[in-house]
Each structure stands twice: as structure tokens, then as C-alpha cells.
Backbone:
């Protein structure tokens, strides 16, 4: 073989080698730790569509891996080969709450945060025939009695948020767990409990029907949907809370691939069609980079740990 042919073959080999190393050169899998059809699953499917639409030559495959309150799918996302081809849905419950309850093979320290793309806001509403109908009345009532506050399940985000607020406000409450938010809402509208934690979308119809009233929103500032409802912050109580979801990965992904993924998530979330479809589902779209996302998750984890320890639930699943 002459020198020209040898050089040509070497150049072709180098070119093919470089192309083979291009990331991503095969589909990226993102694991949803919940069953298909739920809010988180639908959000991730919209995210995957936007990812493919905005990241040239990319394919994203959604895989549902439910069970364990989200811990099974989260484990599946945190312990595969760290090559950037397996990602996960980083939801508040599995990351910030479940490790304190025990039974998870991971902690928040095992998480590589890629980017946050959505939050689910929370409000506290008074129920039918409750002995209070606004924030001030609720706080005054709670000085001498423990209001019965419904939630969607013991140890869940709604339970922890109500208890965390009570801790911050230095009041006592009686948490009443139900088998989901719809059961809690039925009890609230029926006047069987005093108040409940809900998302703004869940509360809106009942507020408009006059069945419940919003006591406060768990945000730093008032929200457009309920402009007359105060925040705890403006009432002098340092408390905010919301559920959230983002993209996570295992530790150890090479720096170049990690940077690509983080930039890709930012681009994906900025897509107008993605934002419109998310908002139509009642999702609050917001992008947070890896540092801000991790700071939010760790702050919620610390809050949840304190509450879970106070409730005597720490490590209960071990």
C-alpha cells in the first residue's frame, strides 16, 4: 500500500473515531419513577418532545419505573453506567423526603443535578364550616386548638409542608392523611376537616364554588390566580414550599457530556411550545440551573428531615 493510501486510511479512521465519540450518538433514556398517565409522566413526555425538537439529532426515550413512592425509578436513574445516556426525573418526594423515611439505597449526595424545569405550587385552604376563613383567623384559632389539616398521604409532600409550616409558625396542627388528594378534597368540601393543602389548580374550582377559601399561598410572593391570598412571608413567617421536578443523573458523567446535558435542558425548557403545553396542564414552568436546583433540593431535604424527626418517622422504613 503506497503512502497516499496509508494516509487516506488513517484520516478516514480518525474521522470515524471522532464521529463515534460524538455525544449523543444513540437514544438518551429518561426514567420516570411513577406510573404512566400521571402529572410527572405527562410533563416528562412533553419535555422529551421538546428535547428532540430543539437538540439536533437527539432521541429521548421515556421509561416508567414506578414503585416505592418513586424510590425504585430514582434508584434506576442514579446507579447505571454514568455515560450520560440514562437520566432520571428528579422529584421532590424521592429526593428530599424518602431518604429520611428510610429504605432507599441512595441519598441526595448520590445525585448529579442537571436542571429543574417545573414546580407545583401549594396553598392552604379552609374547608366548609371551618372556624376560620382567612390567615389571621387561622393563626388566632391555632393558638389554642389544633386545626385538622388534610393531606394526600402520610409522609408525602403535602403532609410535610403542613407540618413544616406549623413548625415555622410555632403552632400545633393535627395532620389527617388520606389516600390521595381527591379523597382529602372530598372530606374538605364535606366539612369533615378544617383545612387542607392543595395545588392552586386543585383549589380553584372549589374556591369559585364558594366551598373553600385560600388561607395563604406557600410562595415568597402572591400569585395571580389568588391575588387576595397572602403569603406566610408577608405575615412575618419565614416559610415557603412547593413541589418540583427536574432532570437528574448518576455521579461520574464525563465533564463534556455533563455540560452538553445541562445546556440541552436549559434550551429544552425555553421552548415556547413546551411552556404553553405545560401551562395548559396547570404546571408552573421555571428553569433553574444545577446549582440553584441542588440548593433548592438540599434546603427542602433539611426542612423535611427536621419535620420527619419531630414526627418520629425518621428511618421508619429501614
Residues:
Amino acid at each position: 500500500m503506497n503512502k497516499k493510501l496509508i494516509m487516506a486510511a488513517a484520516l478516514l479512521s480518525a474521522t470515524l473515531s471522532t464521529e463515534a465519540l460524538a455525544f449523543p450518538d444513540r437514544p438518551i433514556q429518561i426514567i420516570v419513577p411513577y406510573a404512566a398517565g400521571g402529572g410527572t409522566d405527562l410533563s416528562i413526555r412533553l419535555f422529551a418532545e421538546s428535547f428532540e425538537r430543539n437538540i439536533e439529532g437527539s432521541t429521548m426515550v421515556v421509561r416508567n419505573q414506578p414503585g416505592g413512592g418513586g424510590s425504585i425509578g430514582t434508584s434506576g436513574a442514579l446507579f447505571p453506567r454514568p455515560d450520560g445516556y440514562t437520566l432520571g426525573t428528579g422529584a421532590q418526594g424521592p429526593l428530599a423526603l424518602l431518604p429520611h423515611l428510610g429504605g432507599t439505597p441512595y441519598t441526595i449526595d448520590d445525585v448529579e443535578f442537571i436542571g429543574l424545569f417545573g414546580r407545583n405550587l401549594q396553598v392552604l385552604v379552609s374547608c366548609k364550616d371551618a372556624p376560620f376563613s382567612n390567615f389571621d383567623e387561622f393563626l388566632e384559632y391555632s393558638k389554642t386548638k389544633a386545626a385538622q389539616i388534610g393531606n394526600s398521604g402520610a409522609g408525602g409532600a403535602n403532609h410535610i409542608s403542613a407540618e413544616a409550616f406549623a413548625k415555622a409558625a410555632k403552632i400545633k396542627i393535627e395532620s389527617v392523611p388520606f389516600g390521595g388528594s381527591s379523597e382529602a378534597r372530598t372530606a374538605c368540601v364535606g366539612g369533615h376537616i378544617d383545612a387542607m393543602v392543595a395545588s392552586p389548580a386543585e383549589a380553584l374550582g372549589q374556591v369559585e364554588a364558594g366551598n373553600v377559601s385560600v388561607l395563604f399561598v406557600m410562595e415568597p410572593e402572591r400569585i395571580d390566580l389568588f391575588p387576595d391570598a397572602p403569603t406566610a412571608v408577608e405575615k412575618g413567617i419565614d416559610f415557603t414550599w412547593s413541589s418540583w421536578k427536574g432532570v437528574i443523573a448518576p455521579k461520574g458523567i464525563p465533564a463534556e457530556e455533563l455540560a452538553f446535558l445541562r445546556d440541552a435542558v436549559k434550551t429544552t425548557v425555553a421552548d415556547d411550545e413546551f411552556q404553553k403545553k405545560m401551562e395548559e396542564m396547570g404546571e408552573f414552568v421555571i428553569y433553574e440551573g444545577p446549582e440553584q436546583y441542588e440548593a433548592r433540593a438540599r434546603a427542602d431535604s433539611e426542612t423535611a428531615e427536621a419535620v420527619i424527626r419531630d414526627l418520629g418517622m425518621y428511618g421508619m422504613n429501614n
